[in-house]
Amino acid sequence: MTAEHKEKKDRKEPGYRDINERLGDYDEVERILEPDEVIEQAERCMSCGTPFCHGYACPLANIIPETNELIMEDRWEEALELMLSTHPFPEFTARICPALCEGSCVKGINEQPVAIRQIEKMIVEKGFFEGWVKPRPPEKRRPESVAVIGSGPAGLAAADRLNKLGFKVTVYEKDLNPGGLLLYGIPNFKLDKGIVKRRLDLMSAEGIVFEPGVNVGIDISYNYLKRRFSAVLLTGGTQLPRDLDIPGRDLDGIIFAMQFLKAQNKRIVGEPLTPEENITVRDKKVVIIGGGDTGSDCLGTALRQGAEEVYQLEILPRLPEERPEGNPWPLWPKIDRQSSSHLEGGIRRWSVTTKKFVGDDQGRLKSLQCCEVEWVDKDGRMMPVEKESTDFTIEADLAILAMGFLGPGPDPLADQLGLERDQSSNLFVDDNYMTSSPGIFSAGDMARGQSLVVRAMADGKSAADHIKEYIDKM
After folding, report:
1. Nearest residue to 35 via CA among 90, 81, 82, 72
2. What is the DSSP letter of 16?
3. Are residues 396 and 283 in the same domain?
4. What domain count does the chain have?
5. Is residue 137 part of a domain?
6. Same domain for 253 and 346?
7. Distance (Å, whole) CA 87 – CA 274
8. How many CB atoms lie within 10 A of CB 321?
9. Do 428 and 449 touch, CB atoms closer than 8 A?
10. CA atoms within 13 A on the CB side of 357
C-alpha cells in the first residue's frame, strides 16, 4: 500500500479526569495515553524529513526522532536510555513543559504536531514501572566537592550532572524540603509531589547529599563553604515578584501568587503553616491579576478550595486561536491556550487593567476598580491606554498578584560577596556561568531571569560542565 493510501493518523491527547471528580481533590488531572496510542504518535514522527524539534527547539537537545523510532521497534528500554542521555528528569517536563519541541514539529506545518510530551511521559513512567530507572552512582569518585545552593530545576539538574561526573555534591535548600519550584510552586494537580520525591530519593541513593532547612549566608557562611568545596553554584531562582503600585495596595487581602500556591503545596506535603501563611479562599470572591501559567495555577487551586467566584484578569489582549501571519513555523506559536484550570471554571478577561483597590472601614479589600485598555504604538513601543467609559468594579475578598517576577531579589550569600548583577538585577555570569567572584557560579532563573523549567534544567547541566572545566584547571 502506498503512503498516499495509508490511513491518516491524527494527534492524540489523553484528556483530563472528569471535572467533578478532579475539583474534589488535588491529584494530577491529566490522563496518560495507552501504549498503542503512543506508538501511533511515534509513527507520525517518521514522516519528518528534517527535524526541528530537538536541534532547534528543545533546550536540552533531546534526540526525539531516534527515540520515537526505538518505540516503534518495541525497544522501550533503549528509548529510555537515549532520552536519559540528554534529559535528567523527563518525568517533570512530561507534565509541566509547554513542549517547545511540539511548536517546531514539522507536522505542525500542515496539521497537528506529534504529541511528543505524551511520548516522553509514557517512556519514563514505563521505565520506573519496569525498574529500568534505578540508582546509578558514578563508578569513580573524584576528591573534589561542589555545593549547589537551591534545589529547584536548575539546582537539581546541575547536582545530577556533577554527581555523574564523579564529584561529591551537597545541595542546600532554605525550605524544609528539597524540590524548590517543583515542590512548592507548581500545583499538585499538575505535578504530583510523589513524583518529585521519587526523583529526590533516587538522587540521594546515587550519592547526592541534601541539606534542607539551611539558608546559606545566614545559617552557614561563605567561609564555611570555601573550606569544604572547590566550587559553589547558586540556583536560587527568581524570588522578587512584580508588584502593583496603585491606590489601596496596603489593604489586607492582597497577596502574591507564590504565597497562595506555596501554602497549598505545604498542606500537600504535610508541612506546618504559620497563621500568616494559612491562606484559603473557601466561599470567597477572588480576583487573580495576571493571565499566565502562574495565574492559571492560582485559578485551579482557588476552585479546589471552594472559592465562591474567581476572576482572572490579563492586561494583554487575547491571543488568536491559530498562528498569526507574523508568527510562522518553526517559531513558538503565540496562540491562546486553555489550561485544565481554565476548563474548570472562573471568568477570564483580557485587555483589562486594575486602577484601584477599594477597602472597607476595617482596611480589608472589598473590590477592584478596573477598566479596559487598548494597545497603541508609542514611539515604536506598544503601550496600554485606558479606553473611555469602560470602568467597572469587581467585588473581591482576596486579590492574588500573578504578574511574574523582577529578579532574584536579595540573596544573603550573593549580597555578602557583592556579586555583580545585570540591568535586570539577575546575577551577572560570563559565558562559563561564573559570577564576578571566582569559583562562584550561577544558573537558571537567578542568572537568566524568569524562564521555563526546561531552560533552567539545561542551564544547570551546562553550568555543571563548566564547573568541571574550572576545577580541572585548579
Report:
1. 72
2. B
3. yes
4. 3
5. no
6. yes
7. 37
8. 9
9. no
10. 26
Element (H, E) at 441: strand 440-442
**Secondary structure of residue 208 in the 3-state scheme:** coil
Cα end-to-end distance, the chain, whole Å: 63
In the chain, what are the helix, strand and coil shares in percent, each to the nearest 5?
35, 20, 45
Return per-residue pLDDT of the chain as tens, 474 residues.
344 445 678 999 999 999 999 999 999 999 999 999 999 999 999 988 899 998 899 999 999 999 999 999 999 999 999 999 999 999 999 999 999 999 999 999 999 999 999 999 999 999 999 999 999 999 999 999 999 999 999 999 999 999 999 999 999 999 999 999 999 999 999 999 999 999 999 999 999 999 999 999 999 999 999 999 999 999 999 999 999 999 999 999 999 999 999 999 999 999 999 999 999 999 999 999 999 999 999 999 999 999 999 999 999 999 999 999 999 999 999 999 999 999 999 999 999 999 999 999 999 999 999 999 999 999 889 999 999 999 999 999 999 999 999 999 999 999 999 999 999 999 999 999 999 999 999 999 999 999 999 999 999 999 999 999 999 999
Q: Helices 153-164 and 453-472: crossing angle, nearest 10°?
A: 40
CB-based contact 364:327 (threshold 8 Å): no
pTM, full prediction: 0.96
Torsion sign (Cα): 43, 11, 61, 83: negative
176 and 114 in a common domain = no
Please tell me whether residues 252 and 398 are part of one structural domain: yes
Structural domain contains residue 465: yes
139 in a domain, yes or no? no
CA atoms of 158 and 144, how far apart (whole Å) = 15
What cell was used for 152?
A: 529547584
Does residue 424 contact residue 124 with C-beta atoms inside 8 Å? no
Domain boundary among 96, 130, 164: 130
Q: Are 171 and 199 contacting, i.e. CB atoms less than 8 angstroms apart?
A: no
Sequence-distant (6+) residues with CB within 8 A of 196 are 92, 179, 182, 183
Which structural domain range is residue 37 located in?
Answer: 3-130
Do both 304 and 357 map to the same domain? yes
Residue 301 lies in a domain: yes
Looking at 101, 130, 159, the residue that finishes a domain is 130
Q: CATH number of the domain at 436, please.
A: 3.50.50.60
**Are 91 and 167 members of one domain?**
no
162 and 306 assigned to the same domain? no
- Closest of 318, 31, 346, 341 to residue 186, by C-alpha: 341
Residues 247 and 383 in one domain: yes
